[in-house]
Amino acid sequence: MIATKEMFEPHSSEQLPASKKLFVEVYGPRCGNCVNQENTMKDPEIQALLQNAVVVKINGDENSALRQKLKVTGYPTTDILSPGQNKPTRHRGAMTKEELLTELR
Question: Of the candidates 24, 6, 5, 44, which has an alpha carbon nearest to the alpha carbon of residue 85?
Fold first, then answer.
């Protein structure tokens, strides 16, 4: 999914499926920790759990206005919003396999 600034407005017409988590990762193309997290996310167990999530990846260097709106100060920054939550859980830095599994279950 391509992220746009408008998707993060309160009046957005984009609707998430009620049963899916929202996984938003803001990354930098030359970020070593982002590469580490990307490699961890290729794990088959994590890939299976991501089938129950809407995954949005945002290149923070190319989308500075959106990065600022989301108050991202470093890469990677991952926000995970579970159904029924009003505020996402924020992770700064590369998430480990265990952290990803915990958040995605």
Answer: 24
Side-chain half-sphere exposure of 94, counting CA atoms within 13 A:
14
For residue 94, tell me if it sits in a domain. Answer: yes
- What digits encode the pLDDT tens for the residues 42-81? 999 999 999 999 999 999 999 999 999 999 999 999 999 9
Q: Is residue 11 part of a domain?
A: no
Total number of domains in the chain: 1
pTM: 0.83
Pairing of strands 53-59, 77-81: unpaired
Distances (CA, A) of 93 to 50, 52, 65: 19, 23, 20
Better-scored residue on pLDDT, 85 or 60: 60
Instruction: Give a yes or no: residue 2 inside a domain.
Output: no
